UniProtKB/TrEMBL annotation, chain A:
Keywords, in A-Z order: Cell membrane, Membrane, Transmembrane, Transmembrane helix, Transport
Domain ABC transmembrane type-1 residue range list: 94-314
Membrane topology: Multi-pass membrane protein
Organism whose genome encodes this protein: Kribbella caucasensis
GO biological process: transmembrane transport
A GO cellular component annotation in the UniProt record: plasma membrane
Segments passing through the bilayer: 100-121, 133-150, 188-206, 245-273, 293-317
InterPro entries tied to this protein: BPD_transp_1_N, MetI-like, MetI-like_sf
UniProt family annotation: Belongs to the binding-protein-dependent transport system permease family.
Pfam families, per database record: BPD_transp_1, BPD_transp_1_N
Full protein name: Peptide/nickel transport system permease protein
Coiled coil segments of this chain: none
Keyword hit for Membrane: yes
Location in the cell: Cell membrane
Automatic annotation (TrEMBL), chain B:
Species for this entry: Kribbella caucasensis
GO cellular component: plasma membrane
CDD domains (UniProt xref): TM_PBP2
Protein name from the UniProt record: Peptide/nickel transport system permease protein
Membrane topology: Multi-pass membrane protein
Transmembrane segments: 30-51, 94-118, 130-150, 156-175, 214-240, 262-282
Amino acid sequence: MLRYILKRLAASVPMMLVASFAVFCLVALSGDPLARLREQPGVSAEAIAARSEALNLDQPLIVRYLGWITNVLQGNLGLSLDGEPVADKLTRAFSVTLRLVIAAAVVAILLAVVVGVLSAVRRYTVWDYSATFAAFVFFSMPVFFLAGVLKDLAIRLNEATGHVIFTTVGERGSGAVTGLLDTISDRAGHMVLPTLTLVLVTFAAWSRYQRASMLEILGADFMRTARAKGVPERSVLLRHGLRNALIPLTTIVAVDFATLVNGSIVIETVYAWNGLGRLFITSLQQGDVQLSTAWLLIAAGAVVVFNLVADIVYALLDPRIRHA
Amino acid sequence: MPEPLLLTGAPRQSRSQLRLAMRRFVRHRAAMAGTVVLVLVFGASLIGPHFTPYGFAELTEDYSQPPSAEHWMGTDAIGHDLLSQVLRASQKSIQIALVVAALSTFIGVLIGTVAGYYRGWVDTLLSRMTDLVLVVPVLAVLLAAANSISQRGGNWFLVAILIALFLWPTVALVVRSTVLSLREQDFVQAQVAIGASDVRIIVKHLIPNAVGPIAVSATLLVVTAILLESSLAFLGFGIAPPDTSLGKLVAVGQTASSSRPWLFYFPGVVLLVICLCVNFVGDGLRDAFDTRRSGGRA
């Protein structure tokens, strides 16, 4: 097992290097980072030249990349436009987004497993048909529209009752919150709607995969054998069926990590969360190249780590993989 | 008359399979309903603008009007007729989606067949590349790249090409696995034996027999493309004014959803209906060709 993990780990190092170069080129080639600075009135030629120097813009691309990656490897991601280290900004936003993504992923996986398994076990019943229809609606649903609808409904509900039942703006209250319990309830209250949105758009597709893999297992020979041995039905479904039917979902969830990233960019914009998604959008709008490059690098790293974890989990669950 | 050898078996079989699939598709109620609605929406978005009294960029004297006989979907704060805008935006969304689907299906089929047919190191290389592009958080990368597109006037065709560059892996995966199993079959081996060229085998025998899986994944790409393009527009990237997109309309409407809900709900629901219908069509195609794949999303 250890050998398998090390092998996978070694394979992801060149992957990361390729990704870092791609990311650097993407940002470097996607426009003049000084365009906005030049447009602003009252910015002296010296200021522009200084900025150009700071970004090494007079150097060829490959030299700039080597300089940048050397810094990154030493833990220096550069400075944002306002002079704050990029790393600090990313760390702050990261914890905000992590809350959203982890909560949503956990709830969505549980929901997908429950809905998918029930659909498979009660195939072609009213329950199955409604779950299928709901899944169709939610994976045809643009995230920003769903987020907007939930926000609109929440605002109407708040107005109708005269109480703030759902908070719709920001990741935390504006007032000073004291005490651990208050802080937790404040953060949790702000999380309800964004998490719900992300759960709904991700669980739909996952529940379909779960249904398909459960159906396949239900038809397997070992299920019939288990029943023939006289194993109670409940135990057949859960210990023999579900355990095996969960394996494909781990891969799907890991590959769909990108969906979670996409979703959180949009959701943070709608609910005005100061997380990674919004940070990225602002960095692009302001032409903050150091920040956008570092952001994309972190995203690439997260994708690689997620796939690595998925491979390892897969191998743990299914011995056939690690001995292949 | 006797059959002229079994070497011509494959294309013949694929034609009749296609007809069978067509028949199954027509019987699929949701898929047919989806097709009809899609044709109506696309038709309306192409023909409608010739009949609506206002241009999509025209500023009327009516500001923030709720839906009425004059403005079926109401107007926005500066007097745009929303119906005209929604029609124009749907037209753009569908155009972009079709271009994306066509382009990325082409790239996907090309890479998938070459990888599956030649195997060996070519396959390893192409498959690695496919896996790499497959896990890219597309929206983030598109945002970074689209930034320069909006600086260059927001050409919709550029947006489409850009999206297509990231969506081909799903097609490539499906085509590769189909080709891998097809190339072992007797009719392909027979072609090799009579000395048919690789190009001929690929174009005449492999691709026609993989048309089912290709059609299904191309349809799913249409949804992915529409969702991506509208998300880009919603976040303020991609298509530039005065031209518009459903995502942009939803973005404008969302800021005023409590006071002028029509601005938010009309474009949003149209977008949802388009995506839902395409998914129904995809589901119908999948059942018709009976390929065992479940849907994903962007």
